[in-house]
Write a structure and sequence with these properties.
The protein has helices spanning 11-21, 25-52, 59-70, 78-85, 89-101, 123-141, 148-164, and strands spanning 75-77, 105-109, 117-121. It is mainly α and 178 residues long. The protein has 2 domains: 9-55; 56-134, Arc Repressor Mutant, subunit A. The protein has a 3-stranded antiparallel beta sheet with strand order 1-3-2.
């Protein structure tokens, strides 16, 4: 979703120039990289939110619905959902509260661990997840704003950054892009 009033210059490029002029040239490229990723995230989230908001979903709730829909049993322990989504357990609890109020998930006792609670997707949750995914596929994922060969380059570069930050095991099984 392009900005309604594009700026006459790239503000990150200008910030890079200013960093250099003010004696921080040795870190100007890093500043531009971090700032560019953060701005790109804002742009992508705005596009995703535009699709999900009419469905009453945030991206966090959508991710949880999809995680549950991809699981074999349609249910996961709260702690496992938190780990797989790489978010704090409080965030999962908040998302579950909202999804449960909308009858998209339900909490159920764990069959073998009385201390644990499972989050289970409902049929309405599955249906909404499918509809939201179809819309995201059509309106966001099919045309993320880069040529196909550039997408692969971006995904590889971001995977390298995430791996170096400890986001996943360096010995993880390679995918299409690694």
């Amino acid at each position: 979703m392009p900005s309604p009033n594009p700026l006459p210059l790239d503000p990150i490029e200008e910030a890079h120039r200013q960093w250099t002029v003010h004696g921080w040239g040795d870190v100007a490229d890093g500043m531009a990289a971090v700032t560019s990723v953060m701005r790109a995230q804002q742009i992508m989230m705005a596009r995703v939110d535009e699709v999900l908001k009419p469905a009453g979903l945030t991206f966090a709730r959508y991710e949880l619905l999809m995680l549950l829909s991809f699981s074999r049993a349609g249910a996961l322990p709260m702690a496992k959902a938190s780990a797989r989504l790489q978010v704090h357990p409080t965030s999962v609890t908040n998302a579950v509260d909202r999804l449960e109020a909308a009858h998209l998930v339900k909490r159920v006792p764990h069959p073998s661990d009385r201390r644990a609670t499972l989050i289970e997707i409902t049929e309405a949750g599955r249906e909404l997840a499918v509809k939201a995914t179809e819309q995201l596929n059509e309106r966001v994922f099919a045309a993320p704003g880069l040529a196909e060969d550039r997408i692969e380059t971006l995904v590889r570069a971001l995977a390298e950054l995430r791996r170096a930050a400890g986001d996943f095991d360096s010995g993880a099984t390679p995918t299409k892009w690694t």
